[in-house]
UniProtKB/TrEMBL annotation:
This is enoyl-CoA hydratase. Keywords: Fatty acid metabolism, Lipid metabolism, Lyase. Could possibly oxidize fatty acids using specific components. The lineage of its organism: Bacteria, Pseudomonadati, Pseudomonadota, Alphaproteobacteria, Rhodobacterales. It comes from the Bacteria. It catalyses: a (3S)-3-hydroxyacyl-CoA = a (2E)-enoyl-CoA + H2O; a 4-saturated-(3S)-3-hydroxyacyl-CoA = a (3E)-enoyl-CoA + H2O. Belongs to the enoyl-CoA hydratase/isomerase family. It comes from Salipiger marinus. GO terms for biological process: fatty acid beta-oxidation. InterPro entries: ClpP/crotonase-like_dom_sf, Enoyl-CoA_hyd/isom_CS, Enoyl-CoA_hydra/iso, Enoyl-CoA_hydra_C. PANTHER family: ENOYL-COA HYDRATASE, MITOCHONDRIAL, ENOYL-COA HYDRATASE-RELATED. It holds the Pfam family ECH_1. Its EC number is 4.2.1.17.
Length: 258
């Protein structure tokens, strides 16, 4: 399918989706959110794709929801249209691992989109923020909930109430991002991480994603039970037999996703 606001490339089992509205610093409008949702569903369903990268440009991952598109909307239009909620739900349905590769601004909805991905690799130029307060609103697609879970109440309150930006170093220290690399190496690093993930059994990577996500949805006891069931169920797979046999035979495992 031809897209106008994103670029989708599939290479060596890794799909890279690049947000592509350079004139608006990749601001998230309804078209981009619709295209992103559709592209994610397509690559998630593809037999070839084993890991997904979402990225933007050197200057901006995404500078937030499109303020021009939003500014004149009424409550009724926002409530009935709900294009942000629809996109957020679509991203939440992706079962394969999704890496956000963030350079430059990840603000408002851009920060929220990065946090919807499974983990964030940031360039040293990355700037994260929830500046919606400056526009007379608040975060609307998970910022107050996810940022608080990821960096704690104090820093999350600080970000949401003052609207200040957090640089990559602070974001790594706070646990928002998993690694920070020099800007020029960002995509290499993201592709290397994706390639590492793509080597594994997709059954195991999907189970790992599902189990880690339970940690944010439920009690410790329920989460531990969910993890245990997923762990035990992997013993029904050929890939578990292959992975353990390969270790014992001192060779590389050949996973077949069975
Ligand atoms: N929306 C629309 N256009 C944008 C946006 C945006 N969020 N951000 C930048 N642009 C446009 C600018 O208008 C400008 O366009 P033009 O050249 O036509 O005037 C172009 O991108 C370049 O931007 P700047 O000239 O401003 O670039 P600077 O380098 O000077 O500044 C900044 C970069 C600091 C990123 C600045 O552009 C900025 O502050 N942008 C807005 C950031 C922001 O407030 N984001 C939050 C938006 S609200 C939100 O995300 C809510 C999400 C939840 C919604 C849920 C609904 C239910």
């Amino acid at each position: 399918m031809a897209y106008e606001t994103i670029i989708v490339e599939v290479d060596d089992e890794v799909a890279t989706i690049t947000l592509n509205r350079p004139d608006a610093l990749n601001a998230l409008n309804s078209q981009l959110l619709g295209e992103l949702s559709q592209a994610l569903a397509e690559v998630d369903a593809s037999d070839k794709v084993r890991c997904i990268i979402v990225t933007g440009s050197a200057k901006a991952f995404a500078a937030g929801a499109d303020i021009k598109e939003m500014s004149e909307k009424s409550f009724v239009e926002m409530f009935l249209g709900d294009y942000f909620g629809t996109a957020s739900d679509a991203i939440g349905r992706v079962r394969k691992p999704v890496i956000a590769a963030v350079s430059g601004y990840a603000l408002g909805g851009g920060c929220e989109l990065a946090m919807m991905c499974d983990f964030i690799i940031a360039s040293d130029t990355a700037k994260f923020g929830q500046p919606e307060i400056n526009l007379g609103v608040i975060a609307g697609i998970g910022g107050t909930q996810r940022l608080t879970r990821y960096v704690g109440k104090s820093k999350s309150m600080d970000m949401h109430l003052t609207g200040r930006f957090m640089d990559a170093e602070e974001a790594e220290r706070a646990g928002l991002v998993s690694r920070v690399v020099p800007a020029k190496q960002l995509m290499d690093e993201a592709h290397q991480a994706a390639a590492k993930i793509a080597e594994k059994s997709v059954l195991a990577t999907m189970a790992a994603k599902q189990a880690v996500n339970r940690a944010y949805e439920t009690t410790l006891t329920e989460g531990l039970m969910a993890e245990r069931s997923l762990f035990q169920s992997l013993f029904a797979t050929e890939d578990q037999k292959e992975g353990m046999a390969a270790f014992l035979e001192k060779r590389t495992a050949q996973f077949r996703d069975r």
